[in-house]
Write a structure and sequence with these properties.
Blueprint (H helix, E strand, L loop, with lengths): L10 H10 L28 E3 L4 E2 L5 E7 L7 E7 L5 E8 L7 E3 L4 E2 L5 E7 L15 E7 L5 E8 L6 E2 L6 E2 L5 E5 L1 E2 L6 E7 L5 E8 L7 E9 L5 E7 L2 E7 L5 E8 L7 E9 L5 E7 L7 E8 L5 E9 L6 E8 L5 E7 L15 E8 L2 E9 L6 E2 L6 E2 L5 E5 L1 E2 L6 E5 L10 E2 L13 E8 L5 E7 L13 E7 L5 E8 L13 E2 L5 E5 L16 E7 L5 E8 L7 E3 L4 E2 L5 E7 L8 E7 L5 E8 L16 E3 L5 E5 L9 E7 L5 E8 L3 E3 L4 E2 L5 E7 L1 E10 L5 E8 L7 E9 L5 E7 L13 E9 L2 E9 L13 E2 L5 E5 L15 E5 L2
Antiparallel strand pairs: 1-3, 2-3, 3-4, 4-5, 6-8, 7-8, 8-9, 9-10, 11-14, 12-13, 13-15, 15-16, 17-18, 18-19, 19-20, 21-22, 22-23, 23-24, 25-26, 26-27, 27-28, 29-32, 30-31, 31-33, 33-34, 35-36, 36-37, 37-38, 39-40, 40-41, 41-42, 43-45, 44-45, 45-46, 46-47, 48-49, 49-50, 50-51, 52-54, 53-54, ...
Length: 830
């Protein structure tokens, strides 16, 4: 490309403007034909898997796109599909991403200049690979240039993650009025909440980066998503996922940029978590989607209308709230010349058997304006037969008015497809498949599940504290990590992905967490490098499980605790900060009488992790700062850590604490609240206003509490509900979760059905609903009977369809008076 500045408009911009110049036909029936099937990362044709960004046309009608995995090295590809005779398409891999300085895992859409060069971003890799962002690199902006003999040459224009630079771009690029490249990073920046950046091509062919704005996690919130969009005056628009804002960045006279929040979502049924970027119509109105919120908490399509006068303001209108049957979690929009909006939803719709869930495989939809109202039409339901599922990309038009997009899953062998939707005259839609992908699993068992999480597709992951392979663990049952997926018949199948062997850990009790690359992280309460020691009472580990080919997973022990000053018995879930450092607590160990620690794990070169103790509890007289932290940690946007201790504090029954970083490697603990007679024993959660919520047990059957911060630094406790120990449940232990409407959900491990062969009951799943004036109403959603589970003491998770999933430590079909074996994983459907 040399030093030529990118021309405006791009080839793709010409096509879009041409489509907007005249009304487009309303879509109807089409015929289906498989044009090309991808092979994932399977030799001899390793050509990519799971496309997520929108597709791109060039002037002759060739399609370009990217896959975020698969290919020769398993880290994604850029591909081209060329139409040929008889409706056949020929695919060419233009570039294979590898785990090196060239970047890997492309997520956003591509752009094309008039010279035929492609530009895009990768979420990982670059010059900071091996050190930045957990050792995976912080991402790149890249250019692909066509060379001789059909080969394409990659050039990294910028590597993220150095100093106050941004980290992990996850959306596409935009071209500004002067030909500079613009984009967003979801993390990093001077304040840690992500950035808006500009890349300028200099005369010597180098590209220089300028940070236009650093998001703070405060009033401007954090994690800008999607592709930036410009207005005619050169102002830049976007949205933040965390904090739920639509914003504008305006250039000032001195060349700096200022931010203005146009709308804050989450004020009721107006939607929450805007994603997929924004688009303009010809009148200057903005349109976008939210993945959550709305009348049924399945997401919305919204419009922002400017009002210019003495004070500029924007008014939001919800054009459509999805209800699940017509789709759930929309992911972006495109507009035609008549003002109709088109998009896809990740979930929902009619079919669900082929996408491993019970809430639909996604839809393509149209919204048609009629006066002040909008009418939705479902153009296509994904998930039937060899159809694709989970469309994570937006749609694009060709010159004939056909729509094109991609799905991340489904197809002939389940690695996703590229599809075409063609209009006809009968008002219905069928799909034309361009591409499909595949995967594999294996299965085993365990005992005593201790919590579950969901991946983006709704598959369940968790740990069992017992079970596994005793022969591999010195005759003991050291526990497992498992996944539970639906097969094509709708049956749930459990697969073991790791069996602990003692030296790599034993008795995993804390919940797992994912990183951005799909790796799982967790802790074991026992085992470690010194195993066997005593019976098998070693001090525990922090581990990572990395997915490989054909459903295999590789375990890495990041740290093995020694039982001394570095801590012992990690129990609570881990948390990441924006720099991908890990934080957790140990129930015991440390330098002050062995009453627990807060620790940090930092990734160094060559994937070596270093542990540092941030705080040793019982550092003051009578352990007024707390002792035995067992609930794990939560982190706020400023990087402060929050947790609970089960002993110590002013009254000896525990407290809520904050750890605040100050200076270089210094942390200060502040006790936010001391409990008197009740004990906090589960993770805390935040609401959108910064209040903390948790559960206590101890003096009585337990309660649900809220802590509210005040300007003078004090916090006030409000008990939202006190359990009776009867049919409403007793002794909550698993933490809480919110839904989009502000309702709280949790479990108690006692109470409920008092006829379940346990005198104190087998536990319940409950809902707390705010009823005004600070009052909350409890409803029991399910009381366990023993044969369907007993002792639900792990946190719940909420899937996109509003279904609750969780685990019980005991019970199951073999349950009787003398046998509580062996635990269940359950789902509760509203």
């Amino acid at each position: 490309m040399g030093s030529k500045r990118l021309p405006i408009p791009f080839v793709t911009a010409c096509i879009v403007l041409g489509l907007l110049s005249a009304p487009q036909p309303l879509f109807a029936v089409s015929t289906e034909k498989v044009l090309y099937s991808f092979k994932g990362d399977s030799p001899p044709r390793a050509d990519g898997a799971s496309p997520e960004g929108s597709l791109l046309f060039d002037a002759p009608g060739n399609l370009y796109g990217a896959t975020n995995s698969g290919g020769t090295y398993g880290f994604g590809t850029v591909f081209e599909l060329m139409p040929g005779a008889n409706g056949k398409w020929t695919k060419t891999v233009l570039h294979d991403f590898g785990e090196n300085s060239g970047g890997f895992w492309p997520l956003g859409s591509l752009i094309l200049d008039e010279g035929g060069n492609l530009y895009g971003t990768t979420a990982y890799g670059g010059d900071t690979y091996g050190s930045g962002c957990g050792g995976s690199g912080c991402g790149t902006v890249f250019e692909l240039t066509p060379g001789a003999n059909g080969k394409w040459i990659e050039k990294v224009l910028h590597s993220f993650g150095k100093g106050s630079d941004g980290q992990q771009p996850s959306g596409g690029l935009a071209v500004g009025p002067s030909g500079n490249l613009y984009g967003f990073t979801t993390e990093g920046g001077a304040l840690g909440g992500g950035t808006a950046f500009q890349l300028t091509l200099e005369g010597d062919g180098r590209w220089t980066e300028k940070i236009l704005y650093s998001f703070s996690g405060g009033v401007d919130w954090q994690a800008p998503s999607g592709t930036p969009v410009f207005d005619g005056a050169g102002n830049l628009y976007g949205a933040t996922i965390y904090g739920n804002t639509a914003f504008r960045l305006a250039r000032t006279a001195n060349g700096e940029w200022t931010e203005e929040v146009l709308h804050t979502f989450g004020q009721g049924s107006d939607g929450s978590e805007p994603s997929g970027g924004l688009i303009f119509d010809v009148e200057g109105n903005l349109y976008g989607t939210t993945t959550e919120g709305g009348a049924s908490n399945s997401g919305t399509v919204f419009k922002l209308t400017p009002k210019f006068g003495a004070t500029n303001s924007w008014t939001e209108t919800v054009l459509h709230s999805f209800n699940g049957k017509d789709g759930s979690e929309p992911v972006g929009l495109v507009i035609d010349g008549s003002g109709n909006l088109y998009g896809t939803t990740q979930w929902g719709g009619t079919f669900n058997s082929d996408c491993g869930n019970s809430y639909g495989c996604g839809t393509a939809f149209r919204l048609t304006p009629t006066g002040s109202t909008w009418t939705e039409t479902v153009l296509h339901n994904f998930g039937k037969g060899s159809d694709g599922n989970t469309p994570l990309s937006g749609l694009i038009f060709d010159k004939a008015g056909n729509l094109y997009g991609a799905t991340a899953g489904g197809g002939a062998i389940n690695w996703g497809i590229v599809f075409q939707l063609m209009p006809d005259t009968n008002g219905k839609w069928t799909e034309n498949m361009l591409h499909s992908f595949g995967h594999g699993t294996d299965g085993a068992d365990g005992a005593g599940p201790s919590g579950v999480i969901l991946d983006a597709k709704g598959n369940v992951y968790g740990t069992t504290s017992g079970g596994g392979n005793p022969a591999a663990c010195g005759g003991h049952e050291c526990g497992t990590v498992f996944t539970i997926d639906r097969d094509k018949s709708g049956k749930w199948i459990e697969n073991q992905i790791h069996t602990f062997r003692g030296k790599d850990g034993a008795d995993p009790l804390g919940n797992l967490i994912f990183d951005g690359r799909g790796n799982l992280y967790g802790t074991t309460a026992q085992g470690g490098a010194f195993y066997p020691c005593g019976a098998y009472d070693c001090s525990g580990t922090v581990f990572r499980l990395s997915p490989g080919r054909k459903g295999t997973w590789t375990e890495t022990v990041l740290h093995s605790f020694g039982g001394g000053t570095d801590g012992q018995t990690p129990l609570g879930a881990l948390v990441f900060d924006v720099s991908r450092n890990l934080y957790g607590t140990t129930l015991e160990g440390g330098s002050n009488y062995g009453l627990g620690t807060v620790y940090e794990l930092t990734s160094e070169a060559n994937d070596q992790w270093t542990e540092r103790i941030l705080y040793n509890f019982c550092a003051v007289q009578n352990c007024a700062d707390g002792a035995y932290p067992n609930g794990g940690l939560v982190i706020d946007a400023a990087g402060n850590l929050y947790g609970t201790t089960s002993e110590g504090g002013a009254y000896g029954t525990g407290n809520v604490f904050q750890l605040r970083p100050v200076g270089h490697n210094q942390w200060i603990e502040t006790v936010l609240y001391n409990f008197n007679g009740v004990v906090p024993i589960a993770p805390l959660i935040f609401d959108k206003a910064g209040n903390l919520y948790g559960v206590t047990s101890g003096d009585g059957p337990g309660n649900i509490f809220e802590l509210t911060p005040h300007a003078n630094g004090t916090w006030t406790e409000n008990v939202l509900y006190g359990f009776t120990g009867g049919t409403d449940g007793g002794d909550p232990a698993g933490g809480l979760i919110f839904d989009g409407a502000g309702n709280l959900y949790g479990t108690t491990f006692l109470g409920g059905d008092l006829g379940c062969n346990q005198p104190s009951g087998c536990g319940v799943v409950f809902e707390l609903t705010p009823s005004g004036n600070g009052r909350w109403t409890e409803a029991v959603l399910h009381a366990f009977s023993g044969k369907d589970g007993d002792v639900p003491e792990a946190p719940l998770v909420l899937d996109r369809a509003g279904h609750l999933r969780g685990a019980t430590a005991g019970g199951g079909p073999l349950y009787n008076n003398n046998n509580g074996c062996c635990g269940t994983v359950f789902e509760i459907i509203p």
